[in-house]
Structures are given as C-alpha cells and as structure tokens.
Write a structure and sequence with these properties.
The chain is mainly β and 127 residues long. It has no helices and eleven strands. Strands 2, 4, 5, 6, 9, 10 and 11 form a seven-stranded mixed beta sheet that branches. It has a four-stranded antiparallel beta sheet with strand order 1-3-8-7, with no helix packed on it.
Length: 127
C-alpha cells in the first residue's frame, strides 16, 4: 500500500507559477512510476505528466509541454510538478498517482496503470 499526499495548490493569476509536491509513504517509492493527473469540473480526469521510477524518462500531455516540469527525489519519497505560465484552463484538482513496475513513456500516460492515488489539491488560475 502506498499513501500519497499532495500539497502546493492554490490560487494564482494567469502567467504565474506553482509547484505541487506529492509525498509518498512507502520506502519502495523508487520502484514506482509517478504521475500527475487533473480533473476540472464536469470533465474526466486527464493525464498531465509522469516520470519513470528513476526519473530518467518523462512524458507530458501536449497541453502542458514546455510549461510544466515533473521531477522526483527518491531520497525524499517525493515527486514534484513545477507549473509555469499558468492559464485559466489549467484550473482543476490535481492528483498524484503511483504505478508499479517499469513502464514505457507511453504506458505512463494511461490512467488505469496507476494503483494508488492521492486526495488531490486544488489549483485555480484566474484571468
């Protein structure tokens, strides 16, 4: 079992930045691919970004490429999402998730690959 706790959400103006953090409870954190997903009101949960167990492979949704950066610190059991140049359409609840195994970059974007989820953190971008 992996427990995930997100933090760092909030209200920011368009063009601003936020950094989300996700702390994991398990010592074997480094054996999991980690992803960030988001869900806006009335919409399905969608893939945002993911990183492999080592951090050596990453994948991003087209909508955030060049603006968001995912990273991980296995020594701290934490994954981060640095979000720059935020837009109102980035407004959503952001969730981190853990997927066991060594996944390809493409597989890391598939929501059903993820077994463990955090409770989410709200990000609101005002225009």
């Amino acid at each position: 079992q992996v427990q995930l706790v997100e933090s760092g959400g909030g209200l920011v103006q368009a063009g601003g930045s936020l950094r989300l953090s996700c702390a994991a409870s398990r010592r074997t954190f480094s054996s999991y691919a980690m992803g960030w997903f988001r869900q806006a009101p009335g919409k399905e949960r969608e893939f945002v970004a993911a990183t492999s167990w080592s951090g050596g492979s990453t994948n991003y949704a087209n909508s955030v490429k060049g603006r968001f950066t995912i990273s991980r610190d296995n020594a701290k059991n934490t994954v981060y999402l640095q979000m720059n140049s935020l837009k109102p359409e980035d407004t959503a609840v952001y969730y981190c998730a853990a997927a066991p195994g060594r996944l390809t970059a493409q597989a890391m974007s598939i929501i059903r690959r993820y077994d463990y989820w955090g409770q989410g953190t709200q990000v609101t971008v005002s225009s």
